[in-house]
Amino acid sequence: NAGVTQTPKFQVLKTGQSMTLQCAQDMNHEYMSWYRQDPGMGLRLIHYSVGAGITDQGEVPNGYNVSRSTTEDFPLRLLSAAPSQTSVYFCASSYLGEVSYGYTFGSGTRLTVV
Amino acid sequence: AQSVTQLGSHVSVSEGALVLLRCNYSSSVPPYLFWYVQYPNQGLQLLLKYTTGATLVKGINGFEAEFKKSETSFHLTKPSAHMSDAAEYFCAVSVPPHLTGGYNKLIFGAGTRLAVHP
Q1: Per residue in B54-65, pLDDT tens?
Q2: Do the chains contact at A105 and B95, CB–CB below 8 Å?
Q3: Which residues of A touch B111 (CB under 8 A)?
């Protein structure tokens, strides 16, 4: 059971480049989400999805796009990278509507935009 | 509305000393509460959780937390710190599905970084 898998683990981008951060889970979780973690700011929700074909914005969605074509995958796209998007990104998943299980997190992607 | 406050962004203890990380929550309904740990360059791992029942919950690596409704607290403790406990710790409170439109949501505190000195 792999849990939540994120790729790549590290990435350096130039300003203006685009890229996709991959997230896949094998637990049949309906709910998936993306967070960014910055020093002193904890975890901030970027986007989330409650099932295939359904996505919504979190608290810091600007500059990011998501889609959910399957239950397993929830990629995060940076359309035109900016230095302010330098951060550590985490994908998390859970069962829909069952709060007692909490979230399962991926190991993160450390992104640097130069 | 649900919210979480972690008191102290950095806590430093000596090896063998008591670890106490503070978490206070606000919730309009009986909460589910969680502690997650993040070791350097890793993702977040569930340490322990309170849902219902016994208010003192035990987690991995000797950690425990006590749910105190009267104090709206869920502080994390460990009797004797080990060097390997150095990590960042996040407290989280659940938002029930009927308040979110039907999905599971956790609200996280800002985190407390624990340093353990020899």
Answers
A1: 999 999 999 999
A2: no
A3: 42-43
